[in-house]
C-alpha cells in the first residue's frame, strides 16, 4: 500500500517541477518583451534572455520526446512574449468605434490577443527545438561560441519568417525595443534591423556561457572568453552607434516639410469627407504660411474614392496652387479595372501632380481584408465586421516615386512601414526622402502608437533617410536618418509639425546588400543543424554497437 503513495508523490513532485519550469520560461518571455511595451527599458533586452539560454545549456536531456518538450518550453516563452507585445489589444476594448456589443468586442479582442501570439509562437518555438538538437549534437559543449552564433542566426531567421503570410506580422522584433536609445540601433544601417536582434541574442548567449555551473565541465578560461565576448559585443555596438551619430554626415539639399494631424475620431472619419477636407485645408494653409514646401496628409485623409470625387480632388489641387506647396494626400482610388486601392496622391502648385499614385503594398489583415474569408465567415462571423468596406481592397505592387521639383519622394502607407523590404525597394528606386501616411486612430492611446512609430525610425536608420510621418490622430513625427525624433505631435492633438529635412542620395550598406546576411544566417543554421544531426546519428550508432555488439543498419 505504501508503494503507490510513494509513486504518487514522485509524480506530483515531477509535475510541480514541470510547472515551475514552464512558469520560469513564461516569466522570462514576458520580461524579455518589456522594452517593446516600455521603450525606456531598452537595456533589459541585452541580458534578459540569459536565464533561458543558460537553462537550455544545462537542462538534463530527456529520452522521452525531447523535441516536443523543447517546443513546449518555447510556447511558454513566446506566448508570454506575445502577450506583453500585444497587450495593447485590451486597451481597444470595447471597440465602440466599430459598433460592437460588449460580448462581440470581447470575442474580437480575445481572438487577437491570444490568437496572434499563439500562431506566431507555434512557429517561433522551433527556435528551442533546433537549440535542443544542436546541444544534443554536442555543438554547445565543444563549441560554445559557435553555438552562440547559431542561436543568434536562428532567431533572425525566425523574425524573418514573421514577415511571411498574412499571420506573419513582425510587430515584436527585438530592434523595435531599442528605438528609445538611438546608439543601440545604428547597426541596422549595416545589415538591417535583423542584425540588431542578432547582436542582442548573441550578447545573451555569451553572457549565459560565462555563468559558472557546478555540473558543467566548462573551464574558468572558457567562461572568461565568453564574458569578454559579451562585453565586446555590447560595447562595439554602442561605440559604433555613438560614432555614427556624432559624424552626422547626412548631406543634401534642405527642404521644409510639414506633417499635418487632423485628429478626426475613427467614428467620424468615414462619413464626413467635406469636414475632413476643411480640417486639412486649414492646417495646410497654416503650415504653408510658416514656409512648408511639402505638406504630408495622413492615410485616407479624404475618406472617399478620389477617382469618383473630382470635386475633392480639384479642391486639393486648388489648395496647392493657393499655398504654393506640394501636397501628398491619402485617399481611396480605383484603377481602370475598377479595383479599389488605399493610395497616396500628389497635388502640385504648377498642376503637374497628375502622376501615378502610390498604392499601399501591405494591407492589414482583418482591417482591410479578411484572410480565408469563407472560413472566417463560417467559424468566426464576428471578425468579418472588422472590415467595413463595400468593395474589396487590393494591394499595390510597386514603389512609385514622386518626382517633386527634381526631388525624389517615396511613400509608405501605415502597415507598409512595418516591413523593411517596402522601404528598401523605395530607396533603391531613387527615393531621397520617405513619407509615411497612416491612420492609427483605432489604436486609441495604446502602446501600439509608439510601437508603430518605432518601426518608422528603424526604416530611417536602415536606409539612411529622413522619414516624415503623418498620422490622423498621432503620433506624427519627423525622424532623422539616425532614428532620432526631430519633431513630433502626440496622440489626440490637432495641428502640424514642421522642420527641415535633407534630400539624401547616399546609401547605407544595408540598402546596397539588403537581406543577403539573412540568407547567410539561414545557410549557417542549416549547416550547423545538419552537423548536429550527423553527431546524433553517430552517437546512437555507437550506443547500439556497445549494447548489441553489432553495427546499427
Give the helix/strand layout.
Blueprint: H1 2-37, H2 50-58, H3 66-85, H4 89-92, H5 102-124, H6 126-136, H7 139-142, H8 144-161, H9 182-185, H10 188-191, H11 193-210, H12 220-247, E1 253-261, H13 266-269, H14 273-289, E2 294-296, E3 302-305, H15 310-323, E4 326-334, E5 340-347, E6 358-359, H16 373-379, H17 381-384, E7 393-394, E8 401-404, E9 407-413, H18 420-428, E10 433-438, H19 447-463, E11 467-471, E12 476-479, E13 485-489, E14 495-503, H20 509-513, H21 516-548
Parallel strand pairs: 1-2, 2-4, 3-4, 5-7, 9-10, 10-11
Antiparallel strand pairs: 1-14, 4-5, 5-6, 8-9, 11-12, 12-13
Helix pairs in contact: 1-3, 2-11, 3-5, 3-6, 6-8, 6-21, 8-11, 8-21, 11-12, 14-15
Summarize the structure.
By secondary structure, the chain is α/β, with parallel strands linked by helices. The protein has 21 helices and 14 strands.
Q: Structural class, please? A: alpha/beta
- Name the overall outline: globular
Instruction: List the uncertain runs.
Output: 1-6
Please give the domain count: 3
* Beta content: 5-15%
The whole-angstrom Rg is 26 Å
What can be said about the biggest beta sheet? 8 strands, mixed
The portion of residues assigned to helices is 40-55%
Mean pLDDT: 88
Count of extended strands: 14
Report the total helices. Answer: 21
Distance N terminus to C terminus?
46 Å
Amino acid at each position: 500500500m505504501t508503494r503507490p503513495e510513494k509513486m504518487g508523490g514522485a509524480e506530483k513532485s515531477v509535475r510541480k517541477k514541470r510547472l515551475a519550469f514552464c512558469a520560469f520560461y513564461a516569466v522570462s518571455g514576458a520580461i524579455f518583451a518589456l522594452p517593446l511595451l516600455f521603450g525606456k527599458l531598452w537595456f533589459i533586452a541585452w541580458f534578459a534572455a540569459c536565464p533561458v539560454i543558460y537553462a537550455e545549456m544545462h537542462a538534463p536531456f530527456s529520452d522521452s520526446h525531447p523535441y516536443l518538450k523543447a517546443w513546449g518550453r518555447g510556447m511558454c516563452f513566446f506566448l508570454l512574449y506575445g502577450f506583453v507585445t500585444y497587450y495593447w489589444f485590451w486597451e481597444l476594448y470595447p471597440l465602440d468605434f466599430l459598433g460592437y456589443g460588449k460580448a462581440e468586442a470581447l470575442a474580437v479582442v480575445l481572438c487577437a490577443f491570444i490568437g496572434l501570439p499563439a500562431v506566431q509562437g507555434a512557429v517561433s518555438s522551433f527556435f528551442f527545438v533546433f537549440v535542443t538538437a544542436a546541444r544534443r549534437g554536442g555543438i554547445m559543449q565543444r563549441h560554445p561560441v559557435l553555438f552562440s552564433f547559431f542561436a543568434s542566426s536562428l532567431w533572425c531567421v525566425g523574425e524573418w519568417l514573421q514577415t511571411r503570410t498574412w499571420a506573419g506580422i513582425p510587430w515584436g522584433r527585438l530592434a523595435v525595443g531599442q528605438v528609445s536609445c538611438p546608439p543601440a540601433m545604428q547597426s541596422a544601417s549595416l545589415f538591417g534591423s535583423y542584425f540588431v536582434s542578432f547582436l542582442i541574442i548573441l550578447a545573451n548567449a555569451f553572457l549565459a556561457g560565462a555563468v559558472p555551473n557546478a555540473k558543467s565541465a566548462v573551464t574558468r578560461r572558457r567562461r572568461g572568453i565568453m564574458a569578454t565576448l559579451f562585453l565586446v559585443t555590447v560595447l562595439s555596438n554602442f561605440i559604433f552607434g555613438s560614432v555614427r551619430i556624432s559624424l552626422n554626415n547626412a548631406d543634401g539639399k534642405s527642404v521644409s516639410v510639414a506633417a499635418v494631424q487632423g485628429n478626426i475620431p475613427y467614428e467620424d472619419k468615414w462619413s464626413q469627407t467635406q469636414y475632413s477636407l476643411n480640417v486639412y485645408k486649414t492646417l495646410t494653409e497654416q503650415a504653408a504660411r510658416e514656409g512648408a514646401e511639402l505638406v504630408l496628409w495622413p492615410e485616407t485623409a479624404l475618406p472617399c474614392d478620389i477617382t469618383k470625387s473630382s470635386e475633392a480632388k480639384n479642391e486639393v489641387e486648388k489648395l496647392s496652387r493657393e499655398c504654393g506647396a506640394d501636397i501628398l494626400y491619402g485617399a481611396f482610388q480605383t484603377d481602370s479595372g475598377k479595383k479599389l486601392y488605399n493610395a497616396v496622391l500628389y497635388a502640385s502648385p504648377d498642376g503637374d501632380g497628375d502622376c501615378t499614385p502610390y498604392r499601399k503594398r501591405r494591407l492589414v489583415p482583418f482591417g482591410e481584408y479578411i484572410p480565408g474569408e469563407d472560413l472566417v465567415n463560417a467559424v468566426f462571423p464576428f471578425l468579418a465586421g472588422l472590415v467595413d468596406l463595400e468593395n474589396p481592397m487590393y494591394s499595390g505592387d510597386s514603389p512609385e516615386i514622386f518626382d517633386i521639383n527634381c526631388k525624389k519622394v517615396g511613400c509608405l502607407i501605415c502597415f507598409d512601414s512595418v516591413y523593411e523590404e517596402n522601404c528598401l525597394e523605395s530607396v533603391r528606386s531613387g527615393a531621397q526622402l520617405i513619407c509615411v501616411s497612416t491612420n492609427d486612430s483605432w489604436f486609441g492611446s495604446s502602446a501600439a502608437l509608439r510601437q508603430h512609430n518605432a518601426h518608422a525610425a528603424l526604416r530611417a536608420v536602415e536606409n539612411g533617410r529622413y522619414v516624415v510621418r503623418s498620422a490622423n490622430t498621432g503620433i506624427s513625427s519627423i525622424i532623422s536618418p539616425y532614428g532620432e525624433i526631430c519633431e513630433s505631435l502626440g496622440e489626440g492633438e490637432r495641428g502640424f509639425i514642421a522642420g527641415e529635412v535633407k534630400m539624401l542620395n547616399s546609401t547605407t550598406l544595408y540598402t546596397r546588400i539588403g537581406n543577403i546576411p539573412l540568407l547567410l544566417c539561414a545557410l549557417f543554421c542549416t549547416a550547423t543543424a545538419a552537423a548536429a544531426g550527423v553527431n546524433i546519428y553517430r552517437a546512437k550508432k555507437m550506443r547500439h554497437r556497445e549494447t548489441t555488439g553489432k553495427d546499427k543498419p
